[in-house]
Each structure stands twice: as C-alpha cells, then as structure tokens.
TrEMBL record:
Organism lineage: Bacteria, Bacillati, Bacillota, Clostridia, Lachnospirales
Transmembrane stretches, start-end: none
Protein name per its UniProtKB record: 3-isopropylmalate dehydrogenase
PANTHER family to which the protein is assigned, alphabetical: 3-ISOPROPYLMALATE DEHYDROGENASE
Reaction(s) the record says it catalyses: (2R,3S)-3-isopropylmalate + NAD(+) = 4-methyl-2-oxopentanoate + CO2 + NADH
Transmembrane found in the keyword field: no
Length: 360
C-alpha cells in the first residue's frame, strides 16, 4: 500500500531519532511491499529558524493531507537558545501545542512497558516489579492548563501571572471513552487521576468519568488523587492498567512512569483525534544535553512508529514485527547509554537503529 507520512524531525536529538525510525520503516516497506512517501515538515525551533514562527499554516496543511505524522521532538536549552528570547507564543513549545490543537489530537496514549531485559535499568527493586510492569497513560491533550487563557499583568508595581485550568463535559467525556475502550482490550481497569479534593475542574472530571463508566460495567473504575498517584507509581506500579488523566497531570506522570520502564528513551506515544489519523512521537523532549552526540535512545521513536503502523495504517503484523525486532535487539544485549547495565553492549543512536532494522 502507498501511504503519505508527514515527517517532523524537529530540534535537538529529533533529527537523529527520526532518522533511525525512518530506517526501520524503510525496512518494513521492503519486507512487506509497502511504499511510504514522506513530506518533511518544520516545527518548533527548526521552523523559527526558517520562517520566524514555530508553526506555519503550510505545515498544518501538509500534516492534514497525510495519513499520519511521525515526529521527533522540539525545543532547546532555555538558558542558551535564542528561541527563548522570543515571546512565549513564538517559542518552539507553542508550535507543538498549536499543531496538537489544529489537528484536534485530544487523546495522548503513552504506553509504559518494562521489557524483562531492562529490569536492571529500572531503579525499582525486583520485588516491587514482581511479574512485570505494563500500563498505559491516557492523557487529555488539547485542554486544561496548557490551553487556558493566560496573562502576565502588573498590579501596584507587583507582577502577577495567571494561567487558567478549564474543562468542559464534552472534553472529559471523549477522553474517558477512549480510556474505557482501551481498558477493555487490556486488563479492564481504569484509574482516573485528578485533584478533586481541591479543583472544580477535577470534580467535574470525576462526575463525567463516573457517567461514562456506567456504559462499561465490565471495567473497574477507581479514582486516585494525583499526589497519591505520583507516590503509588513508585511504591506499587503494577497496580495500574490504564491511567486516565488531564493534560498537565498526564505530562508529569508519564515522565515518572517512564523511569519504571528503565528510561524516558523507551516511552512512545500516539496523539489521536476521532479518526484514524494520528501524530506519533516519543514522550521525551529534544534532550539538548546529548544532541548531536549519537547518544540518544531511538527506541521510543521506533516504538511510536510501530504505533503509527498499528493505529493509522492498519498494519498490525508490521507493527508486531517492529516490536519484536526491538525485543530481539534488547535480548541480544545491545543498549544505548540511558538503559545500559553491566554485561551489556553499549551502542549509539545509529547502531541501535541499524540493529533494529536488521532484526526485522
Ligand atoms: N514532545 C516534545 O517535543 C517535548 C517533550 C518534552 C520536552 N520538550 C522540550 O525539550 C527541551 C528539553 O527538555 P527537558 O530537558 O526538560 O526534557 P528532555 O526529555 O528533553 O530531557 C530530559 C533528560 O532525559 C534525557 N533524554 C531524553 N530523551 C532521551 C533519549 N531518547 N535517550 C537518552 N536520553 C534522553 C535527556 O538527555 C535529559 O537528561 C525543552 O525545550 C522542552 O520544552 C519537548
Ligand atoms: C513540550 C511540551 C509542550 C510537551 C507537553 O507538555 O505536552 C511535552 O512535555 C510532552 O510531554 O509532550
Ligand atoms: Mg512532557
């Protein structure tokens, strides 16, 4: 089959990890007789450098006319990069938020799975991990604090900054439905995470989630306050199957969950709307501290590409093959620095990509 894929390398390690994911996709095409045509799209700092803004209408149009978008990461070092001298709405992160909104990508799925081979890279004790760790965070991605009105004002000579956290029932309902549908294909448990002991938006969240739960009597629903959840993720991570939560809590909890998998370099993600279209990117950022050094772990991006094959292109067996190739390379003992442990073989970004492509 012939498919159109928009490719967003982005900033920092973005181009390095996207290159490896594309290498793996080239192998998928060769092996299964598909052909993908790629259009490169600028986003974030890469777009500021060329167009002066982090996202252009043309970039949105290219993404919209594609079957799926595969992305690396955007952003730079806030202390040293000239991008951060611009006003906030013109910085790299604003481009990422804007493209998510423009494509209506309200559902961000972040699967956190600990490969048995990476147990030594996981900082938690073996008895805490037990039989394994396999959960998914379903994060609301186009509402909440990151999209509310904000302003910085001065009152009586004192600066004041305001961010607004708001959700309406429809926004909560559609993401809750996603979480329950996903739970049905997994272990039938949803943990909805909020701060309902303080926030009105969380009290509405809880009410709507309970309404949705009535349509899923086969799925167990529990509510958990976000501060407790942050603690439970390291105390007993295997209690979770599906975590359903709002935008900012999901952002923070997914980075935390990534460490249970060994590294943020292992955490893939899919950002979806109501159709089959999606944007696929690792959950981590542009890692300016290791950019250009062939040190970045490309696995999160390669696993995101596998999610793209599965969700947007209906290629289950191809996605399975990519995941199996990742598994094989880990079983053979190859590791990038972030997941390295004693007795394993240290490889760089490119070699890890080569090994996974070859394993296919
Ligand atoms: N979706 C995205 O594009 C995205 C996500 C998060 C952060 N950011 C942006 O990235 C920039 C850097 O942010 P940050 O430093 O807080 O977070 P980060 O995720 O880029 O890096 C945090 C730490 O994890 C390491 N790391 C991240 N990805 C790795 C990988 N694949 N392999 C090995 N190590 C990896 C980094 O070296 C760093 O030490 C900021 O501008 C931020 O806004 C973008
Ligand atoms: C860069 C930033 C806007 C982004 C977010 O908060 O969604 C990132 O942290 C992520 O997790 O994808
Ligand atoms: Mg984040």
């Amino acid at each position: 089959m012939d498919y159109k894929i928009a490719l967003i390398p982005g900033d920092g390690i973005g181009p390095e990890i996207v290159r490896e994911a594309k290498k793996v996709l080239d192998k998928v095409c060769e092996k299964y007789g598909h052909s993908f045509s790629y259009s490169e799209v600028l986003l974030g700092g890469a777009s500021i450098d060329v167009h002066g803004v982090p996202l252009t209408d043309e970039a949105i149009a290219t993404a919209k006319s594609s079957d799926a978008v595969l992305m690396g990461s955007i952003g730079g070092d806030a202390k040293t990069s000239p991008w951060y001298k611009l006003e906030p709405s013109k910085r790299p992160e604003a481009g990422l938020l804007a493209i998510r909104k423009a494509l209506n990508l309200f559902a961000n799925l972040r699967p956190a799975y600990l490969y048995n081979e990476l147990r030594k890279a996981c900082p938690l004790r073996d008895e805490i991990i037990g039989d394994g760790f396999d959960m998914i965070i379903v994060r609301e991605l186009t509402g909440g604090l990151y999209f509310g009105e904000r302003q910085t004002i001065e009152e009586n000579g004192v600066k004041k900054a305001i961010d607004t956290l708001s959700y309406n029932e429809n926004e909560i309902r559609r993401i809750a439905i996603k979480a329950f549908e996903i739970a049905r294909k997994r272990r039938n448990k949803v943990t909805s995470v909020d701060k309902a002991n303080v926030l009105d938006s969380s009290r509405l969240w809880r009410k709507v989630v309970e309404e949705v739960a009535k349509d899923y009597p086969d799925v167990t629903l529990e509510h958990m306050l976000v501060d407790n959840c942050a603690m439970q993720l390291v105390r007993d991570p295997k209690q979770f199957d599906v975590i359903l939560t709002e935008n900012m809590f999901g952002d923070i909890l997914s980075d935390e969950a990534s460490m249970v998998t060994g590294s943020i370099g292992m955490l893939s993600s899919a950002s979806l709307n109501e159709t089959k279209f999606g944007l696929y990117e690792p959950s981590h950022g542009s890692a300016p501290d290791i950019a250009g050094q062939d040190k970045a772990n490309p696995i999160a991006t390669i696993l995101s590409a596998a999610m793209m094959l599965r969700f947007s292109l209906d290629m289950d067996k191809e996605a399975d093959a990519v995941e199996a190739a990742v598994q094989k390379v880990l079983t053979e003992g190859y590791r990038t620095g972030d997941i390295m442990s004693e007795g394993c073989k240290l490889v760089g970004t490119k070699e890890m990509g080569d090994l996974i492509a070859a394993a296919l």
